[in-house]
Amino acid sequence: MSEKIDYNNFDYYTNRELSWLDFNDWVLEEARDEANPFLERLSFLSITQSNLDEFFMVRVASLAKLAAVNYPEPEASGMTAEEQLKAVNQKAHVQLTKQYQTLDNLLPDCERLGIHLKTVKQLTDKQYQYIKNYFHDDLYPVLTPMADDSSRPFPFIANDTLNLAIQLKKGGNDEPLYATLQIPDVFPRVLRLPDDDNAFILIEDVVKEFVSQLFVNYKIKSSSAFRVIRDMDLDVAEEDTSDLLKEVQQQLKLREHGDVIRLEVESSISKKLLKRLTTELNVEPFAIYEVQGPLDLTFLKHVVKETNGHDDLKYPKYKAYQPKALSAQSNIFDAISQHDWLMQHPYDKFDPVVEFIRQASSDPDTLAIKMTLYRVSGDSPIIRYLGQAAQNGKQVTVLVEVKARFDEQNNVHWAKKLETMGCHVIYGLIGLKTHCKLSLVVRREENGIRRYMHMGTGNYNDATAHFYTDMGLFTANNDMGIDATNIFNMLSGYSRPPFFHELHISPEGIRDFIDEKLDAAIQVVKDGGTAHVQMKMNSLSDQEIIAHLYRASHAGVEIDIIVRGICCLRTGIKDVSDNITVHSIVGRFLEHSRIYIFDFNGEQTVFLSSADMMTRNLNRRVELLFPVKQSDLRDRVLAIYDIMWTDNVKTRVLAADNTYKRVSRGGKPANESQAVFVADAEKKVAFAQARAEQNKLSSLQSAGERQPETPDQSDSANPDGSDA
Prior knowledge:
Elements: H1 16-32, H2 38-68, H3 81-112, E1 116-118, H4 125-139, E2 145-148, E3 162-169, E4 177-182, E5 190-192, E6 199-202, H5 203-210, E7 219-230, H6 244-255, E8 260-266, H7 271-281, E9 288-291, H8 299-306, H9 332-338, E10 341-345, H10 351-362, E11 366-373, H11 381-391, E12 395-400, H12 408-420, E13 424-426, E14 433-434, E15 437-445, E16 448-456, E17 468-475, H13 478-492, E18 504-506, H14 509-526, E19 531-537, H15 543-555, E20 558-563, E21 580-585, E22 590-591, E23 594-600, E24 603-609, H16 615-619, E25 621-627, H17 631-645, E26 651-654, E27 660-662, H18 673-706
């Protein structure tokens, strides 16, 4: 019967881009959810804008390029590039309306709470004088009006910059004149006003008020803010380049001049100004977005940051946990040599990952450090310690992926820095992005060479580790260590090991592994057993994997999937996806971990991975999937998944009509998984501190009995390494 089903039927798939817009709509719903702290709601609204900007810069830009050449091949749901481009813009327009309705709903509450985002007309005399002085003293010397006429052509408008389009006239001459003015981004977008601790005005409103002073003897007929989003996808012709670093740097310069994909204008813009902009910028009508409010809602994150005295309107702070054995007070290699350690960020501190590299950098027994870096922070301590390790005589090899989207410039900088510090640097591989998160420390010990590893689902980025949920594993497992060595030999040289003992590598290896597991699940059910597959990922869009999940579902395999965002799979299709349930969690932290669990007749195996089930991750990236073999850690991952699966506060369930609905609580107590993990972390911190205090007291009592005048201070540090 399964042979009669066409699992590639267009009706069985959701368009990837439209699915992503659904995800962004859930983020928008968090901004509308009154259960969230008020300032966090402003942050969520800001995030929807930054999400949308990146989506247009890359995904919509790609569709535009395909549509421009009339690319005929439909994607999995049957839509051509042209159809997708129009559908995406149509849906994005609806989302834009909802964004600004949300802003309109939030602004009265801002006022009520004493947070004032003012217009010029609402300013007091003192505040008006303040912005007038600010314009003359600070802004005026920097502003550069650009005339647009026959001798001075329309200027280049940079991506994601705020600009004014201006129409003028001189004296009795009715012939319209045009100019543009970029709002300089070297000044804060949100300007704090005097006489009120939480009163702000947007910088473009200040410029608008006094813009006539830049055009002496001319009359301003109208001025309106506008912003363009350009094609910012990096197009590196890797097969033709012998120096990948130079090619990336070259493309970064060219990228700034990509085609305009989206034009945002104030809805009050005059018809003449709008026509001028659309003509000069070559914008399709469907790509014009008329906004009833301030452009670029990312300014809200600055309002949140600048607001004083309202910590009660933010998520409460919490203390992440760090075992003492993985802190600076202990030898981290001794701890890992005894057993594996599982980290769940941000509930567990990211510090042990940094500490792993720090201790290796000065450890006399460490011979080599090898590491992959995809995204790192702007001031990365890991980079610093890798450099120190090289200067201390360790052999340090680092693969820095210079093609990591929107982090290219940062990564090029760090790659050069690492080289100057004496590290061996690999700039990624031709045709592939290296997305796996892997670090290997090789030590000479009493019994010979031993390898220590950290593998993770997320980036080695100490900044994003505070709000991305990820998992990592420290291990000294010998077979995994041999596999890791072989991976680095593949990345730096020409080695092609015939097999791996425990680790699975993309391209192809992870796809083969998932296919084998799904085939095994189908066989178990055919043999009369039970099979349960549980997955968690950011995106599920690969058509072959989805078709295989459909086959497994049809065979009777129970499949539970947690997908944060894009999901091209559809549930509730008779005889196809009856046994598949899809949840999505959007909350305080960005769900980022990837978990793959297989239960065959009660025998459970657990894997973590850097890879989503997307074609790019399975075919065009170096990715890593690794087992959690230690029984207590395996049980912990299973428990973590179960807590997320039973979340009845932040979960949405994919229904048969291809819409997501909030999960029904059914009278059960609230279970918000991220809040559960925060509470658990705080309990562990409190327990560790109480135990430390008890140990300290016992130590002092013992010392007092022996030497009352010299109390023992040796155990004064917190055992968890926390700041408390």
